[in-house]
């Protein structure tokens, strides 16, 4: 059914209404797994122009919808049946909630007549997901479906994005109702009152900026969510303020920009964390001051005033008390602030405006020489730690994960595909090495689970990213532990004929667990060594070619082979077993109290 005549008021089954509403919302692809309570919907699917990706596990469906949303900026859609099908979505929903990702999950439910009777595969999925969704719905009648779905899309995308679940009973899918897409439109979204140019908070922020001599911008995930990349660059360049990034903020401010400092936090660059601790003003752009970023709150940026721009009022003063809160969409707030800042480059010789001899807010107060001295101080503090930015990391005969990730980045640059490459990581050491050694210069080029830290995320999320952006090179970077959690989705890749490159960083351990055991538990490696299958043979069993790499010299040629292959390709990188991610901040330590590499294996910034 491709003709969605919204004014014809056709009578449709609830299952048909489901798909017609998704078509009206612009959905072209969904990720799911059929089952009894959702079968009426699957029966009706053939009538609508929506492609269904059959997953191998419902958790994979949620992660695929998540990856689709992160890569495209659109809403991802996952579908499952009742009972275990619905509960298998939970980890993926929680992952999306923690990282503010807009997905809509649709679950089948037993007939409304037997709700509450513990019928076969009945589960209270709305009760289960209440803490990990922005909202959820139960549709028990066919005329409920379109309004609930349309409101679900509105809620998922509006304000701070996040997941929404719609549970639809089987009899609601089977019954009939009049359908009109326009009539199902929800009421207008009523956001928190947005900042205006005359806002006193904006003036207070400008005053703090005028007084600062050591400012730092903290670039968070909200930059991507708001589409504020251009405004952040303009703001930083106009005032010459250096920019530090959170993990999920990487790529929102190009790593190649001269004002980019790199990643902050638990495994951030040493000079970045020290700059934050020494700063006199922090400008937090769309980030929530989580514990991995701040370290010990009692000693966090002790000399700095804080300006927090955030769309979610509940995040203000939740972790870090701020001096000025600017609540609203980041792009709109920055546009307001930029209107109060001279459009020409701020000079060290202030000039007065002609209008009544008054000065524009910053012209008479901002001395670029002070900020330039601050930038010079930060750059000097890097010392030889900036070795990560050179073309070659040293090869001492051992293969390290740093080599692998750096060479994947270098090959993408050499091929002119740096901005057209999406890296999807799992969670663990390799995730942090990716953040350190792959220099993201474009938004939405890093897809990773930040808040929840979900192992098994990478492979299915990469499928979603590739479906969303088929023209881009998509790389999975996963550890040998997390990869095994969702490896069944290799068959989904083959079934969908997707060209996805897979790099397994194989060190024979649950690597980050092992590193913590080494550092904090006297090398008691309890249950962290992990036996893995031959990943190349496993890929081959699914119909995916692969290669096994043990030497640095073979990395780049094999990466090139994978990128230019006609189909998916898996590379098993057998790396050093007891390598660690450094710097690192111990639990309870201050941001500047970083643990250094105890036994230098590679001469890199980790030693600084």
Give the CA-CA distance, first to last residue: 62 Å
- Main sheet specs: 6 strands, parallel
Name the beta content range: 15-25%
Number of structural units classed as domains: 3
CATH topology of the largest domain: Rossmann fold
CATH superfamily caption of the largest domain? Thiamin diphosphate (ThDP)-binding fold, Pyr/PP domains
Radius of gyration: 25 Å
Tell me roughly what share of residues is in helical segments.
25-40%
Helix and strand topology:
Elements: E1 11-13, H1 14-24, E2 29-32, H2 39-44, E3 51-54, H3 58-72, E4 76-80, H4 84-87, H5 90-98, E5 103-109, H6 125-129, E6 135-139, H7 142-157, E7 164-169, H8 170-174, E8 176-178, H9 200-211, E9 215-219, H10 222-226, H11 229-239, E10 243-245, E11 260-263, H12 270-278, E12 281-285, H13 291-294, E13 305-310, E14 324-327, H14 330-339, H15 368-382, H16 401-414, E15 421-425, H17 429-437, E16 446-447, H18 458-468, E17 473-479, H19 480-485, H20 490-495, E18 501-506, H21 511-520, H22 535-542, E19 546-549, H23 555-564, E20 569-574, E21 584-585, E22 594-595
Helix pairs in contact: 1-7, 3-5, 3-18, 11-14, 12-15, 16-17, 16-23
């Amino acid at each position: 059914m491709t003709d969605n005549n919204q004014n014809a008021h056709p009578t449709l089954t609830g299952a048909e209404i489901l798909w017609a509403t998704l078509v009206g919302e612009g959905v072209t692809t969904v990720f799911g797994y059929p089952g009894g309570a959702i079968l009426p919907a699957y029966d009706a699917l053939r009538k609508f122009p929506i492609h269904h990706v059959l997953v191998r596990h419902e958790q994979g469906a949620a992660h695929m919808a998540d990856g689709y949303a992160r890569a495209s900026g659109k809403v991802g859609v996952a579908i499952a049946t009742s009972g275990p099908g619905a509960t298998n979505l939970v980890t993926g929903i929680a992952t999306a909630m923690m990282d503010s990702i807009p997905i809509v999950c649709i679950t089948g439910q037993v007939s409304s007549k037997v709700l509450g009777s513990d019928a076969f595969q009945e589960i209270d999925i709305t009760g289960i997901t209440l803490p990990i969704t922005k909202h959820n719905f139960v549709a028990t009648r066919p005329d409920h479906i379109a309004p609930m779905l349309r409101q679900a899309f509105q809620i998922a995308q509006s304000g701070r994005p996040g997941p929404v679940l719609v549970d639809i009973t089987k009899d609601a899918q089977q019954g009939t109702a009049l359908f009109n897409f326009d009539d199902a439109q929800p009421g207008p979204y009523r956001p928190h009152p947005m900042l205006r140019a005359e806002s006193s908070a904006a003036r207070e922020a400008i005053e703090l900026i005028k007084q600062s001599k050591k400012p730092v911008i903290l670039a968070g995930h909200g930059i991507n969510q708001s589409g504020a990349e251009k405004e952040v660059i303009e703001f930083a360049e106009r005032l010459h303020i250096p920019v530090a990034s959170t993990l999920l903020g990487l790529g929102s401010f190009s790593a190649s920009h001269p004002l980019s400092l790199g990643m902050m936090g638990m495994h951030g660059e040493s000079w970045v964390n020290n700059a934050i601790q020494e700063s006199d003003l922090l400008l937090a752009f769309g980030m929530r001051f989580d514990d991995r970023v701040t370290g010990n709150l009692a000693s966090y940026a002790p000399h700095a005033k804080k300006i927090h721009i955030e769309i979610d009022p509940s995040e203000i003063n939740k972790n870090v008390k701020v001096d000025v809160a600017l609540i609203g969409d980041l792009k709109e707030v920055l546009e307001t602030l930029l209107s109060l800042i001279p459009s020409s480059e701020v000079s060290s010789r202030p000039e007065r405006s002609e209008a009544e001899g008054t000065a524009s807010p910053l012209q008479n107060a901002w001395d670029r020489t002070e900020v330039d001295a601050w930038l010079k101080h930060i750059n000097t503090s890097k010392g030889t730690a900036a070795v990560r930015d050179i073309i070659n990391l040293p090869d001492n005969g051992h293969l390290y994960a740093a080599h692998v990730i750096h060479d994947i980045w270098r090959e993408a640059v050499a091929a002119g595909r740096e901005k057209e490459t999406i890296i999807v990581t799992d969670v663990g050491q390799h995730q942090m090495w990716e953040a350190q050694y792959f220099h993201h210069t474009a938004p939405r080029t890093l897809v990773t689970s930040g808040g929840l830290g979900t192992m098994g995320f990478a492979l299915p999320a990469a499928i979603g990213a590739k479906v969303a952006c088929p023209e881009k090179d998509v790389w999975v970077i996963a550890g040998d532990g997390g990869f095994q959690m969702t490896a069944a989705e290799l068959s989904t890749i083959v079934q969908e004929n997707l060209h996805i490159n897979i790099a397994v960083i194989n060190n024979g351990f649950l690597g980050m667990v092992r590193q913590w055991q080494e550092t904090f538990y006297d090398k008691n490696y309890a249950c962290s060594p992990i036996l893995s299958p031959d990943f190349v043979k496993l890929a081959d069993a699914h119909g995916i070619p692969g290669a096994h790499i043990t030497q640095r010299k073979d990395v780049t040629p094999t990466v090139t082979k994978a990128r230019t292959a006609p189909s998916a390709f898996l590379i098993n990188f057998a790396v050093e077993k007891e390598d660690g991610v450094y710097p690192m901040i111990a639990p309870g330590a201050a941001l500047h109290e970083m643990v250094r590499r105890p036994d230098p294996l590679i001469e890199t910034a980790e030693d600084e």
